[in-house]
């Protein structure tokens, strides 16, 4: 890694040495802030050497950069895929205690730089998007863009109309009032009910906390859509690449959201 005066690109030609966190973001590994966290955690190596110093630079044409020993590359095209996450898998690309991670279920070797867009709790199943495009992930997750995520929750008991209105208006949790949600009852039962709920926030265990706040514990939770992308018939534990129509739809969502 040599000393350089600039890390700017030049008309799409040779990419001169750039800051390591910028390289990682361009490679789709994580946002720049997330990339800094990866570096300070000792998970990033350059030419086999752990690099923790923020501001370190790399030459993409010369240096080998790895995250958790998986090579990262800047490419002209990005890959976005959908996974139907099973219960028991952590939404992380590695775990120091060797617990099952979603990285075990997606083709990280074939598509270096894959990173989950957001997260699902270990006991939540369903649609989890991955991409090598860090900017796409950041745009879809930004709170002001209001990208909707829909879940099917199996809950204890039955919701009445008043409780549905409370959920739709916003629930006060320990970290503040939630934004309005959309709620519909899919199936009523004496013991359990199946409810569909759409939110656009991403607080920790938010759906479970919302239902618990109105007196209904969640027995099972599955995410069935993220923006325009549907889980559909994708089998549990399997993944698929998004088709061109889906990637275009995601791009359109991001563009519309950025105009708000």
Characterise this structure.
The radius of gyration is 20 Å and the shape is elongated. It folds into 3 domains: 18-72, Structural Genomics Hypothetical 15.5 Kd Protein In mrcA-pckA Intergenic Region, Chain A; 80-118 and 128-143 and 240-258, no CATH class; 148-226, Alpha-L RNA-binding motif (Alpha-Beta Plaits), CATH 3.30.70. α1 packs across α2. A hairpin with a 2-residue loop joins β11 (172-173) and β12 (176-177). It has 6 helices and 17 strands. By secondary structure, the chain is of the alpha+beta class. Helices cover 22% and strands 27% of the residues. The strands form 4 sheets. Strands 7, 8, 9, 10, 13, 14, 15, 16 and 17 form a 9-stranded mixed beta sheet that branches. A 4-stranded antiparallel beta sheet has the order 3-2-5-6. Strands 1-4 form a two-stranded antiparallel ribbon. The model is unreliable at 1-15 (pLDDT under 50).
Q: How is the biggest beta sheet arranged?
A: 9 strands, mixed
What is the count of distinct domains?
Answer: 3
In angstroms, what separates the terminal alpha carbons?
42 Å
What is the N-to-C succession of helices and strands?
EHHEEEEEEEEHEHEEEEHEEEH
Residue-averaged pLDDT: 88
Strand content: 25-35%
Give the CATH level 1 class of the largest domain.
Alpha Beta
Low-confidence stretches: 1-15
What's the multimeric state?
single chain
Compute the number of strand runs.
17
Known CATH architecture of the largest domain: 2-Layer Sandwich
Which word captures the global form?
Answer: elongated
Helix content estimate: 10-25%
| SS class | alpha+beta
Here the CATH topology of the largest domain equals Alpha-Beta Plaits
The CATH superfamily name of the largest domain is Alpha-L RNA-binding motif
Number of helices: 6
Radius of gyration: 20 Å
């Amino acid at each position: 890694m040599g000393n350089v005066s600039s890390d700017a690109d030049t008309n799409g030609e040779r990419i001169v040495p750039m800051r390591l966190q910028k390289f990682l973001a361009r490679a789709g590994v994580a946002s720049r802030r997330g990339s800094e966290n990866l570096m300070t955690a000792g998970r990033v190596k350059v030419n086999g050497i752990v690099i923790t110093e923020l501001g370190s630079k790399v030459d993409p044409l010369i240096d080998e950069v790895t995250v958790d020993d998986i090579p990262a590359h800047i490419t002209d095209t990005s890959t976005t895929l959908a996974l139907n996450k099973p219960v028991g898998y952590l939404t992380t690309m590695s775990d120091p205690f060797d617990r099952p991670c979603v990285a075990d279920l997606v083709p990280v070797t074939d598509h270096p730089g894959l990173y989950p867009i957001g997260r699902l709790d270990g006991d939540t199943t369903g649609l989890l998007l991955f991409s090598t495009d860090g900017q796409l992930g950041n745009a879809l997750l930004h709170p002001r863009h209001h990208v909707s995520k829909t879940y099917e929750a199996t809950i204890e008991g039955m919701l009445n109309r008043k409780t549905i209105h409370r959920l739709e208006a916003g629930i006060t949790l320990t970290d503040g009032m939630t934004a309005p949600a959309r709620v519909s009852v899919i199936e009523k039962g004496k013991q359990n009910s199946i409810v569909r709920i759409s939110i656009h926030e991403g607080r920790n265990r938010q759906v479970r906390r919302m239902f618990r706040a109105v007196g209904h514990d969640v027995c099972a939770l599955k995410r069935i859509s993220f923006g325009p992308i549907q889980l559909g018939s994708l089998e549990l534990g399997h993944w698929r690449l998004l088709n061109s129509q889906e990637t275009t739809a995601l791009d359109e969502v991001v563009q519309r959201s950025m105009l708000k």
